[in-house]
Amino acid sequence: KKCGEEMEGMCPKMKMGLSVLLWMQVCFQAYAVSYVDRRVEKSVEIAPGVMMPSVNLGGVHGKPSNYSLFMSLGGRGLDTALLYGDDVQIEVGKAVRSSGISREDIFVTTKVPCCPPIDSFYNITCQPDWWNTTANIARDLSLLGVGYIDLMLVHWPCKTKEQSLATYLEIEKMVQQGTARAVGVSNFKSDDLEYILNHSTIPPAVNQCQFSIGKHDDVTLQYCKAHNITYQAWSPLGGLSGVDVLNDPDVKNIANSHGVSAAQVALRWVLQAGSIFVTAALKKEYLQEDLSLFSFELTDDEFDLLASK
User: Fold this and answer.
1) Helices (H) then strands (E): counts for the chain
2) Domain 54-245+271-295 belongs to what topology?
3) Around 179, how many Cα atoms within 13 Å sit in the side-chain half-sphere?
4) 231 an active-site residue?
5) How many CB atoms lie within 10 A of CB 75?
6) Which of 85, 227, 238, 302 yields a CA-CA distance of 20 to 30 A from 258?
7) Is 83 exposed, middle or buried (0-12, 13-18, 19+ CB in 10 A)?
8) Kind and range of the H or E run holding 46
9) pLDDT tens digits for 28-61?
10) For residues 141 and 93, is the Cβ–Cβ distance under 8 A?
């Protein structure tokens, strides 16, 4: 009101000048918000005092990624799951113990299964009972042998929301017992998350889902942002979703303009979308690319073009 009263005593030209300045300030603030939303960091806080790397390396189906080489190149986030097989779990544990890096500086994510709503490629029979989850947690901890888990996830929703909650409440106990620093879920949609949030003590820190250029669930991503749940992409290059991201003409053109690879553009897009990610690689050059995503930035137009796919 005071500002309005002061303007009443000004000449029209002065009023117009102030109006233009105010308009420019609003536009600048809108741009700044857009920029902040797309700024990416090398690590994010997923729970109070728990920092998680934005770039994580994973392996599946008994073919572990080169975890040791990844850590020697500066990587610190490792991702695995009980159902990836004993060999992968053991490999992750060995890599951590032999790295010469302090355990506190390495971030280990793993997952325990729930009963899938449909036949899955894991081809398993599991029970949703709490005791089965407890046994899975104990086996996971034993195979890894790294003392504690930084992030424990429910691998997918159960057949019912009640079963998903029962499983989640068991891994929630890990935080209270000191065997996990944070807990979360994987492959959950917004309605699945809503039920967990309404009936749990510790909210999910992370939701790990399929997410890439050409295959992105924007509804769940926005829900997670609104509820302070870190969104993590799996298959960020589209390899498991049938999307040929690396050969997309727009991706390749943008890569050429920045002097980077198509994979780096695809991964950078995921980060600027507000998601961290887990990927898999064996070759040193690919691992180095995965860790070299913070020296360039996609423009708004480039980002929007890829988001439209």
Assistant:
1) 12, 10
2) TIM Barrel (3.20.20)
3) 17
4) no
5) 22
6) 238
7) buried
8) strand 43-47
9) 333 322 333 567 999 999 999 999 999 999 976 5
10) no
pLDDT at 130 over 90: no
Would the annotation count 61 as a binding residue? no
Phi-psi region of 217 (alpha: psi -120 to 50; beta: other; left: phi over 0): beta
Does 274 or 38 have the greater pLDDT score?
A: 274
Nearest CA among 163, 103, 114 for reference residue 136: 114
Catalytic residue among 84, 168, 223, 231: 84
166-224 pLDDT, tens digit per residue, is 899 999 999 999 999 999 999 999 999 999 999 999 999 999 999 999 999 999 999 99
280 Cβ contact list (under 8 Å, min separation 6): 57, 58, 59, 60, 65
pLDDT above 50 for 101:
yes
Separation between Cα atoms, residue 140 and residue 82, nearest integer Å: 6
> 290: helix, coil or strand?
helix
Structure tokens at 210: 């399929």
* Helix, strand, coil percent values for the chain (each to nearest 5): 50, 15, 35
Return the closest-CA partner of residue 111 out of 167, 73, 55.
Answer: 167
Structure tokens at 78: 């490792």
The domain spans of the chain are 54-245+271-295
Residues linked to residue 206 through DSSP beta bridges, in sequence order = 230
